[in-house]
Fold this sequence. Notes:
Layout: E1 4-5, H1 15-23, H2 43-60, E2 66-71, H3 74-86, E3 92-97, H4 100-109, E4 114-120, E5 144-147, E6 149-150, E7 155-156, E8 168-171, E9 188-192, E10 203-208, H5 225-230, H6 240-255, H7 258-280, E11 283-284, E12 296-301, H8 307-316, E13 319-320, E14 331-334, H9 341-358
Parallel strand pairs: 1-13, 3-4, 3-5, 5-8, 8-9
Antiparallel strand pairs: 2-10, 6-7, 9-10, 11-12, 12-14
Amino acid sequence: xxxxxxxxxxxxxxxxxxxxxxxxxxxxxxxxxxxxxxxxxxxxxxxxxxxxxxxxxxxxxxxxxxxxxxxxxxxxxxxxxxxxxxxxxxxxxxxxxxxxxxxxxxxxxxxxxxxxxxxxxxxxxxxxxxxxxxxxxxxxxxxxxxxxxxxxxxxxxxxxxxxxxxxxxxxxxxxxxxxxxxxxxxxxxxxxxxxxxxxxxxxxxxxxxxxxxxxxxxxxxxxxxxxxxxxxxxxxxxxxxxxxxxxxxxxxxxxxxxxxxxxxxxxxxxxxxxxxxxxxxxxxxxxxxxxxxxxxxxxxxxxxxxxxxxxxxxxxxxxxxxxxxxxxxxxxxxxxxxxxxxxxxxxxxxxxxxxxxxx
Length: 359
Ligand SMILES: *Cc1c(COP(=O)(O)O)cnc(C)c1O
C-alpha cells in the first residue's frame, strides 16, 4: 500500500512515473536491457537525454540562449561550482541570506571569493524575505545569489530580486516546476532533482550563454559549466537512471497541465493547509503570510512535548515523514508537485483529530 510521503527530499514521486519505470525495467524500448545498462554514449540513451532536455525547455519556456546542464554533486556542489565558474579571483559575490540553504551557499562561496551578504533576515528568525529595493547590489559583483524557496523554514520569494546588470543566480531546488517562473530574468538557475523533478543524483543547471567561458582554471572539469555544455553534460558518465526518471517526471508535469497546472494544484494544497493551521487555534506557522512556501509547510503545535507523538501517530495513519528539520523542530509537511490534494486533506483531518484529543 502506498502512503502519503511528506518528506522534504528525496520526496514523493508521481505513481505513474514509478509504474512506467517498473514496466520498462527489464526491457527498455525493446532493447532487451534496462536503461541503467545502456552506454551513455549509445544512440538510445543519447536520445533519452536529449528528450528530457527538450521537455524541460518546453515546460519552463527556456530561451535558446540558455544551456541546460545535467550534473552530479547536488545543489550543494553547485554552491562551490558557481563561484568557480562565474567569479574572477578577487571579484565579490553578493548573496541574500534568507535561511539555511542560502547560509550554506554563503559558507561555500567564502572558500573561493569575498562574499557580501547584502540582506539578512536571520534576526526575525528567517520568517520573511527582504523587501524589494531594501538592499543594494554591488555593480561589480560577479552575481547575486538567492534561494527562491527555503526548504527548511518554508519561505518563498514572492518577487524576483532586482540586480541591475549583475547576473542573478537562483537556487530553485525545492520549487522548480511548482509554478511558472521567469527564466529570462536570471543568469543561472539550478536545482537538485529530488524535491520536485525526479530522484536524487542529478542537478540541473540552466545558464545563459554569455556566462560561459569564465571558469577559473582550477575548476574541476566535471563542474566546469563550459566544458560540460560542450560535452552535452557527458564529460564523464552521467547518472543515467536519474536522468531517465527526470524525463518521465517531466512527462507527468506536461500531462498535468505544465507549470500552470502545477500552480493550480499547488495553490489549492497550500491554501487548504495554511487556512486550517491559521484557524485551528492549536497549530501555528511563523512565516509572513505573503511569503509562505507552497512546497514546505512547517508548523508548531501548542504543546511541543507532543511532537514525537504527533509524528508517530501520523506515520501509523500512513502520513509519513512529518518531523520538522532537526535544526528547527516542530513539524513540516513538504507538499511538492507529486503530493495530491487528497494527501493534504488526509493530513488536515489527522491534525484536527489530534488537536481535539490533545488540545
Ligand atoms: C535540498 C536543497 C539543497 C541541497 O541539495 P542537494 O541535492 O542535497 O545537494 C540546496 N538548496 C535547496 C533550496 C534545497 O532544498
